[in-house]
Amino acid sequence: MGMDYQSINPDLLRQFKSIVGEAYVLTEADDLEKYSHDETEDLVYYPQVVAKPQTTEQVAALLKLCNENHIPVTPRGAGTGLSGGALPVNQGLVIAMERFNKIINIDEDNLQATVEPGVITEVFMDAVAEKGLLYPVDPASKGSCFIGGNVSHGSGGPRVVKYGTIREYVLNLQVVLANGDVIWTGANTLKYASGYNLTQLMIGSEGTLGIVTAIVVKLIPQPKYTALMLASFETNELACGAVSAIFKAGVIPSTLEFMERKGIEWVIKFDGLAFDLKDNIQAFLLIEVDGNNQDVILENCEQINTVLETFECKDVLFADTTDQKEALWKIRRTMPVSVKSNSVYKEEDTVVPRAALPQLIKGIKEIGGRYGFESVCYGHAGDGNLHVNIIKGDMSDADWNTKLKDGIREIFELTVSLGGTLSGEHGIGLVQKDYMQIKYTDVHFALWRGIKNTFDPNGILNPGKIF
Amino acid sequence: MGMDYQSINPDLLRQFKSIVGEAYVLTEADDLEKYSHDETEDLVYYPQVVAKPQTTEQVAALLKLCNENHIPVTPRGAGTGLSGGALPVNQGLVIAMERFNKIINIDEDNLQATVEPGVITEVFMDAVAEKGLLYPVDPASKGSCFIGGNVSHGSGGPRVVKYGTIREYVLNLQVVLANGDVIWTGANTLKYASGYNLTQLMIGSEGTLGIVTAIVVKLIPQPKYTALMLASFETNELACGAVSAIFKAGVIPSTLEFMERKGIEWVIKFDGLAFDLKDNIQAFLLIEVDGNNQDVILENCEQINTVLETFECKDVLFADTTDQKEALWKIRRTMPVSVKSNSVYKEEDTVVPRAALPQLIKGIKEIGGRYGFESVCYGHAGDGNLHVNIIKGDMSDADWNTKLKDGIREIFELTVSLGGTLSGEHGIGLVQKDYMQIKYTDVHFALWRGIKNTFDPNGILNPGKIF
């Protein structure tokens, strides 16, 4: 794959402008600033040029030109990524998909929708909800992220435990390849056994194989009711043991989130949460059940309660009203913001088989003890997906800048030794790629490179990411 | 990709025997007969040699040798395939996976199991059911097919409508590549955002990219109760309209099967089914609801009934007892056997967005009228997946052997024009591959070939299949 990238010369710039219109090509530093970072800590990489196409044909024309001229291209959604996937590390052209913001159709007969990649996830969820339908893939950033970015990262969110990731909802993708060719990857069908599944290959490929310009997703009926409870435990082991046991009791909650004590402490300290945090409490589970029948939901809550008691649950806060539910959800939603706004931090996205969560957390604390960092852990316990926020705290700048990498490496080594992998939903992007060799062998890298080379022989698409 | 395949010489045969043991290498015509066909109509291709390895290391050693010597290799599960995927069309070596028949573990804490590919699907389902767990991917051949074959074909079955295909249950695969390298494709986790998803790429690749030697699957809690009903309609349009409306009413049935009148006629005629088939009835839906609460199941049945009435449903047979349920299921399960045992036939596996089913069936009958063939249609209406059994009937041998292909082509052209694709769950294999160009372009073929070439540069794995 060619690393002999060229810069964008005035002639190419003129051609970009003639393709998308002068108003939609940015070259001034002030205009480029927004595209020089995403939400991954404090990394900054300016592109040379940003183009904002509106049609598949424009994307195809841009890519054809860039491919012929060896211009690196970084596709960009809303820039809410947490792994640096949208950073133009080789300069070149950023293709910003923000004008692909139309919901093309919601097909109520087939329970499908076709949507452009620049639609904000929550806008799409609300549009289908108006028709009584559910699109359940709601990452924490649903109010600002694009559904195209969700496809690129194989996104999840709190409801994966019942509803699955975006991988289980995308039926078909329109994709522009590096050379400007346009394909639909599959068919608008719920089943597909017709050759290698290019749809599934594109999901999670982080903009390195093509640029998605339309997305066909499956929808499901909207459940009518939810119940929400917050359970507290004396140890992580007890909390995580309860997680497995809830499933074994035959209940599939719609959310099963873990929060460690330290997370709640941050929300109390920095957001003034009024919460009676008992000394003996170490771990919390936030559990939601949804459905169409209030009696069954109550029955499920009782079943869950019985399980929680078996695991010596100390207290269950049950949200009766919408306001009470919102208050409990707010604790979980505030936690990342509270941690990130009040510290120098790095966020890692680990995932293990769910019963291994206590070992993972214990190991992370032990590693932190040796390296001198604190961590705040929370995440999607039902999926074994733990977000680890590493806090600089009292760590010296020198240690933070040099030794921390070794500590993170140890966290990922532990994750892999527990049967897990580096990322459950944030992707590898730029910041995790140095750790990929902890889990993957030269054979994996050779297969990935072969796939990359098939789709993008000149290596122009989002270079420097994943591997 | 090399088409300069070699035949297996005495020296190689000796090496095969030293790898897997003399008793597990077959070369006599009588022994090879079983491996010369699958359940795809009447095709016969004898391999030169069959080897039956028992370990991943043995598979790796066999593949390494075959790769170095350009011996075509056809992996084989239970031989229940309906698209000719297991037929050794270039002779060479068949690697029969029947000795990979162990359930390695059922992990009740993580609701996962690790299973070898030669385990019969129903044997595995029963083993997890004993622990109160459900593995819901139950193709019609579940009593004889292997779970490894299910992975290779991306299999489905009647419960996909609620539970999804095998694609949503496989977490990780151990795979031997063409050159003998062994990898795990991913991690034993419910989420995965760590590079191109090789697990999903392997699923449905029909043995052309590697040989699976271990499978990690997700399990879910076993629902306690089911209800089953058979609804009859005057037209296909009304039956299929009801399918969409059931979902819109907020109910997700665990099965939603369509059967056309002609299918029931065959079961009455050839299996002595006692059924009062009214003259005005054209289409049937077999609807199952499952869950843990009898009241909710009853409520769901009532909701479904209300929908059915809106679509002028003429009659609903409700199964009260286990025997009655079995009797209704038997109609659906007998249908394929009844058709296939009593006629010269070809089965095609079409899939469209579900609301397009009436147009598909209508078009198939019209095409049959022009070409002189009858057809019996049934399938997974909730998924838009229709199995089309084309019956020779009064068609002349000449027309059957020459003109029929054009008729089948027209069926697939119609399927594609309705937004569908060639196969929902049977795969492309040998018998559908000539039709792939109806839907896919040179760009798709180039991507598929590039992927194939990355995994299997000498083209030894299951040559002549898919494309």
From TrEMBL, chains A, B:
Record-linked InterPro entries: FAD-bd_oxidored_4_C, FAD-bd_PCMH, FAD-bd_PCMH-like_sf, FAD-bd_PCMH_sub1, FAD-bd_PCMH_sub2, FAD-linked_Oxase-like_C, FAD-linked_OxidoTrans_Type4, Oxid_FAD_bind_N
Q: Where is the FAD-binding PCMH-type domain?
A: 43-222
User: Known PROSITE patterns for this protein?
Assistant: FAD_PCMH
Cite the entry's keywords alphabetically.
Answer: FAD, Flavoprotein, Oxidoreductase
Name by which UniProt lists this protein = FAD-linked oxidase C-terminal domain-containing protein
Record keyword Oxidoreductase present: yes
Cofactor(s) in the UniProt record = FAD
Pfam families tied to this protein:
FAD-oxidase_C (PF02913), FAD_binding_4 (PF01565)
